[in-house]
């Protein structure tokens, strides 16, 4: 894992910077700022809310934590002493990645191959893509439609009894399939009937990691927010909150991550309803207003949470910006390795989240 150093200047933000700064290493942009002075705070313009380069802002005392992923390069460290090897853990197991015709599925397969996992050359997709052969990570993956899923999955599990399925498709399409067949799975999508999914897995006594957010660093940020909310309830009473989230135009539902963070702010004493959240899906607005790089318009997750005190003299701003899919792919592979351990040890608990994966502490 990358080590961190602290760079501090009296007139500039405080940054945590990777030892690979020139590669702009991190998976998310976490920006926490506080402005306090004797005059009314001038709220930053909505234009480019994810940057702070204006001279007026630089003159104010700022504390910031910032890290931004700019590409899809793997986030794992190259240090052999810190990396988690599958072979070292004696957990060489096959994975089946469904939805591999999309960017996320392809990224997961590539991350799995990089981690030394065996990829089953079969994937489930839509009926229109059934029969296709997709080459990913140097492997040919055969795509099968909905009509043959159960029979094929049953056969694959017999051939690969320690197989783990990773799925980023719509939960409704596989809500009962994995539990019925008895295959452990990692589910990383939002939407669907989550309660039904949990109940189905629980009744089947199967194993699963279910999390709408697979980005490890983002999950850690949400966990930190939740801890703050639990320990300091009402700390931000009276503050106003503005939330803006931007995702690719194909994402129809509101950000589940933003919902989780908003719940933390509500515990901290802020009155805010989920329908107040501003969703940005228009590419032109994403370019001009949010500042999303053009090459990532079809794959990004930008969030900003802006808090202002009642008298407008104090402001806090939190940001986490993700470009591409590597943060989620790496997290999904870590979740699969974690789940394989639980299955192998016949753990009493069967359903886990990414918080559990983080707490295990053996991420690559």
Give a verbal description of the structure.
With about 375 residues, the protein is an alpha/beta fold. About 30% of the residues lie in helices and about 20% in strands. Strands 5-4-9-10-11-16 form a six-stranded parallel β-sheet. Strands 3-15-14-12-13 form a five-stranded mixed β-sheet. A three-stranded mixed β-sheet has the order 6-8-7. α2 crosses α9 and α6 packs parallel to α7. The longest helix has 19 residues. The N terminus is likely disordered.
Brief account:
The protein is α/β, with parallel strands linked by helices and 364 residues long.
Outline the secondary-structure elements:
Blueprint lengths: L3 E6 L2 E7 L14 E4 L18 H4 L35 E5 L4 H12 L3 E2 L2 E3 L8 E4 L2 E6 L4 H11 L4 E4 L9 H5 L3 E3 L6 H11 L3 E3 L5 H16 L8 E8 L8 H12 L10 E3 L2 H8 L9 E9 L5 E10 L2 H19 L6 E2 L1 H7 L4
Parallel strand pairs: 4-5, 4-9, 6-8, 9-10, 10-11, 11-16, 12-13
Antiparallel strand pairs: 1-2, 3-15, 7-8, 12-14, 14-15
């Amino acid at each position: 894992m990358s080590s961190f150093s602290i760079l501090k200047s009296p007139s500039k933000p405080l940054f945590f910077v990777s030892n690979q700064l020139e590669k702009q290493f991190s998976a998310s942009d976490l920006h926490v700022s506080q402005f306090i002075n004797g005059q009314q705070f001038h709220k930053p313009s909505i234009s480019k809310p994810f940057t702070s380069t204006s001279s007026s802002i630089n003159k104010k005392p700022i504390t910031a934590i910032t890290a931004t992923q700019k590409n899809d390069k793997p986030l794992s460290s190259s240090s052999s002493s810190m990396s988690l090897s599958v072979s070292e853990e004696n957990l060489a197991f096959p994975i089946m990645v469904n939805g591999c015709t999309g960017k996320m599925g392809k990224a997961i397969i590539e991350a799995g191959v990089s981690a030394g996992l065996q990829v089953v050359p079969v994937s489930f997709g839509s009926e229109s893509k059934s029969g296709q052969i997709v080459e990913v990570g140097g492997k040919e993956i055969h795509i099968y439609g909905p009509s043959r899923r159960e029979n094929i999955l049953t056969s694959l599990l017999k051939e690969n009894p320690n197989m783990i399925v990773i799925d980023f498709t719509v939960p409704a399409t596989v809500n009962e399939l994995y539990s019925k067949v008895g295959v452990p799975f990692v589910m990383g999508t939002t939407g669907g009937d989550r309660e039904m999914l949990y109940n189905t897995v629980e009744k089947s006594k199967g194993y699963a990691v279910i999390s709408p957010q697979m980005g490890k660093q983002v999950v850690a940020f949400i966990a930190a927010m939740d801890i703050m909310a639990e320990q300091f309830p009402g700390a931000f009473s009276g503050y106003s909150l503005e939330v803006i989230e931007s995702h690719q135009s194909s994402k129809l539902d509101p950000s589940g991550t933003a919902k989780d963070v908003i719940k933390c702010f509500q515990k901290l004493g802020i009155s805010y309803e989920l329908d107040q959240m501003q969703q940005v899906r228009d590419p032109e607005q994403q370019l001009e207003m949010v500042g999303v790089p053009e090459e990532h318009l079809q794959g990004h997750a930008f969030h900003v949470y802006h808090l202002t005190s009642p008298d407008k003299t104090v402001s806090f701003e939190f940001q986490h910006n993700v470009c591409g899919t590597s943060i989620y792919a790496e997290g999904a592979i870590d979740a699969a390795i974690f789940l394989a351990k639980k299955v192998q040890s016949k753990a009493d608990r069967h359903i886990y989240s990414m918080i559990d994966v983080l707490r295990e502490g053996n991420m690559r």
